[in-house]
Amino acid sequence: MASWQVDSYRREYNVSHCLTSRREFTHDVAAVVVPTKQDTRSMRHLILMRHAKSYWGDSSVSDHERRLNARGRRDAPVMANWLLDQGFKPDQILCSSARRTIETSQLMNQSWPRDAPVHESSSLYLASAEAILHTIGSVQTAANDAQFAKLMVLAHNPGISQLAAHLAGEFIQMPTAAVIVLRCHVTTWQDPLTRDSVEFETEMTPKQIDA
């Protein structure tokens, strides 16, 4: 795709009539599961998450070092519990090096009976969708290695929403602490992730859970 900007996605989908719905995460949108593809390749799950809500009140703190605010500290465990209940607790977490993403991963791990290993990466800090895909592709796994069957990427807007939109084939704007689960028909994470190999499975936000 020539551009990773959301507006470009929307123009492309409208022209090709591929944009059949607009997913903006409102509290009355139910999580859905749409198993459609039949594929002989292995199935993995890619869990895309935006960090929980952060604190903006201290101008002396750099963007990279901003911490979670009270709402963010509440929302991260809520989403961790939802992932566990749905059977989507990640096997590994690729996490931006920003403090707010690291704190989100720490609070989620505190909610699970066993920690998910966290791999911090500066390349995910404010990363574009293309850069996030490149980071996912760098995960070294053997074919059908169940250790990495559920991979979470914990990062930032606009890149994380743009990647979700690119892979799901529709406009997606993820609020803080939002989660999207994608079913990936690939053997390893080095295999290309495209709209032909990925399908939307489910989504959730803290507001949906609170509703």
Short note summarizing the structure:
30% of the residues lie in helices and 19% in strands. It has 211 residues and is an alpha/beta fold.
Layout: helices, strands, pairs:
Blueprint: H1 6-16, E1 22-23, E2 43-50, H2 70-85, E3 92-96, H3 99-110, E4 118-121, H4 129-137, E5 150-155, H5 159-168, E6 171-172, E7 179-185, E8 198-204, H6 206-210
Helix pairs in contact: 2-3, 4-5
pLDDT < 50 stretches = 1-22, 25-40
Strand content: 15-25%
What integer is the average pLDDT?
A: 83
How many separate helices? 6
Tell me how many strands there are: 8
Largest sheet features = 6 strands, mixed
C-alpha end-to-end distance: 37 Å
Read across the widest sheet, the strand sequence of neighbours is 4-3-5-2-7-8
C-alpha-based Rg, rounded: 16 Å
Can you walk through the features of this model?
The chain has helices spanning 6-16, 70-85, 99-110, 129-137, 159-168, 206-210; strands at 22-23, 43-50, 92-96, 118-121, 150-155, 171-172, 179-185, 198-204. It is α/β, with parallel strands linked by helices and 211 residues long. The strands form 2 sheets. The chain has a 6-stranded mixed beta sheet, sandwiched between helices. It has a two-stranded parallel sheet with strand order 1-6. Strand 3, helix 3 (99-110) and strand 4 (118-121) form a beta-alpha-beta unit. Helix 2 (70-85) crosses helix 3 (99-110). The protein starts with 5 loop residues before the first helix and ends with a helix. Mean pLDDT is 83; it is low at 1-22 and 25-40.
Properties at a glance:
two-stranded parallel sheet; alpha/beta; disordered N terminus; 8 strands
